[in-house]
Design goal:
4-stranded antiparallel sheet, mainly beta
């Protein structure tokens, strides 16, 4: 059974850092891409970052709003994906989800599998 479990969210001051983790099971990150998306109240869901399967090169993609601040990575041996978030802004406040479309490459479509989400709050 495909499962995704996020952790690592919390309250942080502007300019601070958080590292989110997502434990994936039921599929291998060697074979499928996985991404981070976020949902803020009153805002549309936004794709944040994605890393493709190892089989397709493990390439990464980041939304323009987080480029230079967020970095997605994964540990294939542990089948976990991470989102290192630096220089956090209040606008980064959202529930962050890891999700997969069970596709080898990153996509903005077809996220059929989601974690429960982890709250990130950036406030002074």
């Amino acid at each position: 059974q495909v499962q995704l479990v996020e952790s690592g969210g919390g309250l942080v001051q502007p300019g601070g850092s958080l590292r989110l983790s997502c434990a994936a099971s039921g599929f291998s990150l060697d074979d499928y891409a996985i991404g981070w998306l976020r949902q803020a109240p009153g805002k549309e869901r936004q794709g944040v970052s994605c890393i493709s399967s190892t089989s397709t090169g493990g390439t990464t993609r980041h939304a323009n709003s987080v480029k230079g601040r967020f970095t997605i990575s994964k540990d294939n041996a542990k089948n976990m994906v991470y989102l290192q978030m630096n220089d956090l802004k209040p606008d980064d406040t959202a529930v962050y989800y890891c999700a997969t479309a069970l596709a080898p490459a990153c996509t903005t479509y077809g996220f059929d599998y989601w974690g429960q989400g982890t709250q990130v709050t950036v406030s002074s």
